[in-house]
Design brief:
alpha/beta, five-stranded parallel sheet, 9 helices, 26% helix
Length: 420
């Protein structure tokens, strides 16, 4: 053995969420029991601590199918709320007893003399394979100029938002109209808060259409089986924002035009920030129209599928705008609008600083082929579009975890045959 002090284990999995647990399950299934799962916090930490209280899935429960642990509840077309998601993960762990070690922070991963040296706050380890299963949403993004905003205006990132009581009296700006932004905006409206929403480029989706949830239709149509290699616009797949809708209270669509009619003030994209205002683009109509084209495009694909396959389904109606902006503002003045809080819902950056190996692009994302890197034995799991749309979700993680486990098992088998 080339190292004196570190302990040896065949495979180390970094991350104790659904991706890490899925990897452990698939390794065990292939007889690779000599592995450990290192979780920095507690099993399922992100679901417990990095979501707001009323958070729910936006995909139907029937798409929750971790390897060996498909959804078995009474509401397959419903949407699990945060506590139910945590329970789903905990029951998964109890089912197969993964070798997880909580409270273990990995501080570096290096490769030396044919082994990986994994340094943690609980000692050093060497292993043949490393699976990094922590996703890629790590560092909350704050825009340039956020530090100029006066101290009396509270700033919260969506990662830290929990409930409306965090938000001071006065009026609130939500920046970003992706899933988090519009859901937080809706929750504040339900709490009778006055909200201003600065739009981004997120598309929107119908919730139920022609008798089924749109996600259920799209899965039946094979849309979610499209691989990244087959995708007609890979750059858009990687950089695009998810369609906005919600699973709250049984699931429904979010129509920003209706919210505008109900009192939410809409603004275009934030261009500049100073101590007094946001300077915004006059692109509200453009962004709403683009989102609606996406909505109606999904409806049309479902219509075509129903027609081509002779399916008996109720009639459907495409979306027609209920509101159009008359005069688009060029700024949002904090004092004039009595702004006391800004909630940033503009995403996250990856942070893999502890992996000291050359597998990352200029944006800090790992470059892989279905999770396999150019460094033999180093794998990633749970990345967006690692293979399909579902790769970073409960729906697609099983296939990806099985693929990586197969790679590890194949290499181990070949090595064993070579020795004998």
């Amino acid at each position: 053995m080339p190292f004196d002090d570190p302990q040896y284990v065949s495979v180390i999995i970094i991350g104790g969420g659904q991706a890490g647990l899925s990897a452990s399950y698939c390794l065990k299934e292939r007889g690779i029991h000599d592995h450990l799962v290192f979780e920095k916090h507690r099993l399922g930490h992100a679901w417990r601590n990095e979501r707001w209280d009323s958070f729910s899935l936006v995909t139907p429960n029937h798409q929750c199918r971790l390897p060996g642990h498909a959804y078995e509840g009474a509401d397959p077309e419903g949407f699990m709320v945060k506590d139910e998601i945590v329970d789903y993960i905990e029951r998964y762990a109890k089912k197969f007893d993964p070798p997880i070690r909580e409270g273990v922070t990995v501080t570096s991963v290096r490769k030396q003399e044919g082994f990986f040296l994994v340094t943690t706050n609980h000692g050093d380890w060497i292993c043949d394979d490393v699976i990094c299963a922590i996703g890629c949403f790590h560092r909350p993004i704050l825009p340039k100029g956020a530090d100029k905003i006066p101290a009396h205006i509270k700033q919260i990132h969506s990662a830290d938002y929990k409930r409306p009581s965090q938000v001071p009296a006065g009026e609130t700006v939500v920046v970003g109209s992706g899933q988090s932004g519009v859901q937080i905006m809706e929750e504040l409206c339900i709490d009778q808060r006055k909200v201003h929403l600065c739009l981004g480029n997120a598309p929107r989706s119908p919730r139920r259409y022609r008798g089924k949830d749109a996600v259920t239709w799209l899965e039946e149509m094979g849309y979610y089986q499209t691989t990244f290699a087959e995708h007609p616009d890979q750059a858009k797949a990687i950089s695009g924002t998810n369609h906005y809708l919600t699973g709250r209270d049984g699931g429904h669509e979010i129509d920003l035009r209706q919210f505008a009619l109900d009192g939410v003030k809409l603004y275009g994209f934030v261009d500049e920030i100073d101590e007094e205002r946001f300077s915004v683009r006059q692109d509200i109509a453009e962004k709403l129209d683009s989102a609606d084209r996406s909505y109606n495009g999904i409806c049309q694909r479902i219509d075509d599928y129903i027609s081509e396959n002779g399916i008996d389904a109720p009639a459907g109606q495409h979306y027609r705008p209920v509101w159009m902006p008359e005069n688009e503002p060029v700024e949002l003045n904090f004092a004039k609008e009595n702004i006391t809080c800004i909630i940033w819902c503009i995403g996250f950056l990856p942070d893999f600083h502890f992996i000291k190996l050359p597998v990352f692009n200029m944006r800090g994302f790992p470059e892989t082929q279905r999770g396999v890197t150019v460094i033999p034995g180093l794998y990633f799991l749970g990345l967006p579009w690692q293979n399909t749309w579902g790769s970073a979700r409960f729906s697609g993680i099983a296939e990806d975890a099985a693929f990586i486990a197969d790679q590890i098992a194949t290499v181990a088998s070949e090595a064993s045959h070579a020795v004998h």
